[in-house]
Amino acid sequence: MSDGRLAGRRVTVRRSAWLGDAERDAYFARIGYHGPAAPTLETLFAIHRAHLHAIPYENLDIHLGRTLVLDPQANFHKLVYGGRGGWCYEMNGVLGAVLQSLGYDVRYLSGTVGRERRGDAAEGNHLVLLVTLDQPWVVDVGFGDGFLEPIPLVEGTYRQGFLQYGLVRDGERWTVLNHPMGSADRFDFTLEPRFLENFAAQCHELQTSPESGFVQHTVCQRFVTDGLVTLRGAVLREIRASGVTETTLGSAPAWGRAILEHFGLAIPGVEGLFPGVWERHLAWAAAREAEANAITSELPAAE
User: Which domains does the chain show, CATH number per domain?
Assistant: First the structure.
């Protein structure tokens, strides 16, 4: 079932002259994909899964003082040849360019995380892809711990492994409901086509504003064979069918080792970020304890 409003409004991702056979082969090698390149639904699903298993979502460059850009070619070099991960503009920007080069009909959409808190000011803080085959499919490798496979543009509940997702519609706006253990519970989008330059203001603000969670916290996320692994600040969180485990990493070597072993990121000097990470962790832990104590103090005394 497709949305009638897509008819006559297909604005695809612009063809990238720099992305040829050699680049596609390099991308496939990076994600460990050895299947066909024909633009089919099966290929789309396989590439989506392989990308999320191989390339982590991460924002470490922000904390290393490096500017993140909207240039798919530069981000391709970072993710594919540089062995790095990225955030939504990088991850979905690269995937969109690759899919377009394979012959898929790809559209950039403006996603919004946290609209319930920030309203329209949050518009465009997430980049989403829409790929049209037999029907439109929501494609997103840039939500960190979102869905592993594309979901159809149809309201409903979608189970992938032990995780469950939802898609609901309210007029022109669609909302993806993340699984209950996700770091963000939802994002919304409309079907209005966008170009990467439309995200420039948000891309700048999210990596420079002191109010931005990307500035406040380091984050790495990746799908693994049996679940998800997230490193937010100093807390390593492993999500599996059997449950969730959390480990606080209290030293620079342990933190750097987790970044390498769980996310495959070998970044010179990354352990130098740990003092700031640990300082923020202690502040967070103290605030959490104070909040718990305040709640306890309001409880009626036992008779």
Answer: 4-204 (3.30.2140.20), 217-295 (3.30.2140.10)
